[in-house]
């Protein structure tokens, strides 16, 4: 049976791999990105470095096959990343601002996120200040593993006095939407092909 434990620095490579292999609305995005690390730099690495108390992994005999990561205060977390995470990545990756959005490669679309200095946490963070990401490889899906991971993070957030948590999911990722709604998340807003869901803790 898979076990859940706190994530640690030695899990970084596994988190980046899982992030990539679930990065296309839950499907394997390996063939979409020239740089296999770029998704992890945005959606996994910052949490392991700057919110380690809210990072948990699911592990079986084959190794780490899933994770849930989050931040209890999204606005404070983004301010930390602006100071301590994004500058090094902006130096590493070129800003694709001069390339029309419709012509950007998948890598360049992620580079644009890295260089976005206008990033703003929406009003949903007033009632749902925490946010999270959860990804599981196919072998870990089902059997209650996702719910168990989420409950582990929810407990940590509640212990910290966090009143609510939100997350984003693609409109076409219907399977994930069903999973989140089954856990009690409700739709908060919908824009740009994505849906923001929230849960009161």
UniProtKB/TrEMBL annotation:
GO molecular function: acyltransferase activity, transferring groups other than amino-acyl groups
Name of a matching Pfam family: Acetyltransf_1
Keywords from the UniProt entry: Ribonucleoprotein, Ribosomal protein
Protein name as it appears in the record: Ribosomal protein S18 acetylase RimI-like enzyme
Organism, as annotated: Deinococcus metalli
Domain N-acetyltransferase: 72-201
InterPro entries per UniProt: Acyl_CoA_acyltransferase (IPR016181), Glycosyl_Hydrolase_84 (IPR051822), GNAT_dom (IPR000182)
Annotated Gene Ontology cellular component terms: ribosome
């Amino acid at each position: 049976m898979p076990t859940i434990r706190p994530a640690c620095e030695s899990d970084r490579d596994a988190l980046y791999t899982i992030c990539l292999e679930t990065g296309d609305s839950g499907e394997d995005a390996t063939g979409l990105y020239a740089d296999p690390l770029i998704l992890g730099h945005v959606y996994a690495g910052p949490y392991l470095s700057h919110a380690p108390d809210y990072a948990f992994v699911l592990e079986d005999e084959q190794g780490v096959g899933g994770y849930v990561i989050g931040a209890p205060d999204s606005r404070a977390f983004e301010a930390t990343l602006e100071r301590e995470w994004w500058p090094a990545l902006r130096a590493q990756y070129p800003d694709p601002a001069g390339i029309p959005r419709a012509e950007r490669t998948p890598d360049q679309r992620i580079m644009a996120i890295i260089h976005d200095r206008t990033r703003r946490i929406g009003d949903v963070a007033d009632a749902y200040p925490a946010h999270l990401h959860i990804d599981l490889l196919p072998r870990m899906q089902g059997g209650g593993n996702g719910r168990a991971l989420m409950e582990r993070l929810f407990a940590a957030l509640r212990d910290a006095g966090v009143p609510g948590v939100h997350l984003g999911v693609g409109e076409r990722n219907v399977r994930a939407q069903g999973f989140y709604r089954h856990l009690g998340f409700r739709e908060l807003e919908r824009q740009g092909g994505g849906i923001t869901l929230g849960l009161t803790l």
